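tool=predict chain=A
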Amino acid sequence: MLDLEAALTQGTLGLINGAFYAMLSLGLAVIFGLLNIVNFAHGALYMLGAFVAWGLLTFLGLGYFPALILAPLIVGAIGILLERTVLKPLYKLDHLYGLLATFGVALILEGVLRNEFGVSGMPYAVPPDLRGVVDLGYMFLPRYRGWVVLVSLLVCLGTWYMIEKTRLGAYLRAATENPALVQAFGINVPVMITLTYGFGVALAGLSGVLAAPIYSVNPNMGSSLIIVVFAVVVIGGMGSILGSIITGFALGFIEGMTKVVYPEASTTVVFIIMAIVLLIKPAGLFGRA
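tool=predict ok
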């Protein structure tokens, strides 16, 4: 018999994982949907966001809230440098070259940090303002984890609104469909592409800062998550902003519920769902063929 309280507890905790799935898959969807780049370095840049937050605290004494602003900007700047130096020469080649290049960047970043800091991980304390718990009736939810879900939801919805409902988003979408026409209207399309990539990886950096107090900051934290995030993107539909948001949160919740109903399948349920979705709708739930 299903324990309703345990199911609600695991489902709520699953939403926390879903928050990271949604934010990371959103960054991937922005980059792929607007630039047609399969960014395999996304997990490493998420990990880099956590390391930047840890470094700002350890070496400069800057706490969590300054890092929440500075770390995404730093990771976004690194992403811009990556796009200008590594990806720009590959735009006219097959997409496979971009995938392999970003995969190589991920291996380099993880290898350098692994050699420097090892794999045991460094702790990052929850900020004092977000400590404690909230009584939900069926469980005591750590205040920080509720904060993660709230911030993720606001960032995801804000990004969707910017891309789908504003003039800037219209320019971005038009630049992917017909860059020559957009360039004719006086818009610098190469700069727009660069900034879009920087924004996508800044989302990964922000996710890393949010994850730092929950998980230990270590070089492998991105590689252990990115495969699931790619599955989320495929299920939602490659390049679908709304699909990434809804699917990320939904799969986190389903993964949590699976731990109650059939714990052995909790690590594979996302991939089982992906296989079923691809058989029924190969473009994904919200994707276009």
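The two ends are 42 Å apart (CA to CA). The longest helix spans residues 4-35.
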